[in-house]
Amino acid sequence: PTSIHALIELSCPDDRDECIRGSKAFGTFLESNGLGVSYPSLDHPKPMNKTFYKGGYITNHYSTDINVIQTELSYVVRNALDLPFYAKNYARALVSFMQANDLLQIDDGL
Questions:
Q1: Under a CB-based contact definition with an 8 Å cutoff, are residues 2 and 63 in contact?
Q2: Are 39 and 50 in contact (CB under 8 A)?
Q3: Total-model pTM
Q4: How far, in Å, CA of 39 to CA of 48, rounded?
Q5: Which residues have a Cβ under 8 Å from the Cβ of 46 and sit 6 or more positions away?
Q6: Measured torsion, CA atoms of residues 25, 30, 36, 39, in degrees rounded to the nearest 10
């Protein structure tokens, strides 16, 4: 199974593409928060060469009983002069993604 397998079963049981490259995809939230082009996402479902880097070593070897999504950020984001901007936007994208997929509930009463 993939690192996002359990999420797909919970959040998009009838439409796998919705969680992977649709409006609920993590890449879609990264793009909408100003973090550049992300693959896969609603606007960019596949890389230009139509193949993905196989990867998976980190998620296969260092995750246990939790769902893991490994991200790789572009050089521009990793080495930006305005790192706090990108860090805040990455956090916003992650929280929005988790809320949209019912992985995080925030109690506004606290």
A1: no
A2: no
A3: 0.80
A4: 10
A5: 21, 39, 40, 52
A6: -20
- Within 10 angstroms of residue 47's Cβ, the number of other Cβ atoms is 12
Q: What's the residue count for the chain?
A: 110
Q: Measured between alpha carbons, how far is residue 91 from residues 7, 97, 99 in Å? A: 19, 10, 12
- Does 85 have pLDDT greater than 70? yes
Query: What six digits make up the tokens of 99?
Result: 């809320």
Q: How confident is the model at residue 108 (pLDDT cuts 50, 70, 90)?
A: low
DSSP strand E in 1-110: where? none
pLDDT in tens, 70-84: 788 888 777 778 888
pLDDT at 11 (0 to 100): 81
Give start and end residues of each alpha helix (H) in 12-82: 16-21, 26-32, 57-62, 75-78
The 10s digit of each residue's pLDDT in 13-68 is 888 888 888 999 999 999 999 998 888 899 998 888 777 766 677 777 776 666 67
Residue 57 DSSP symbol: H
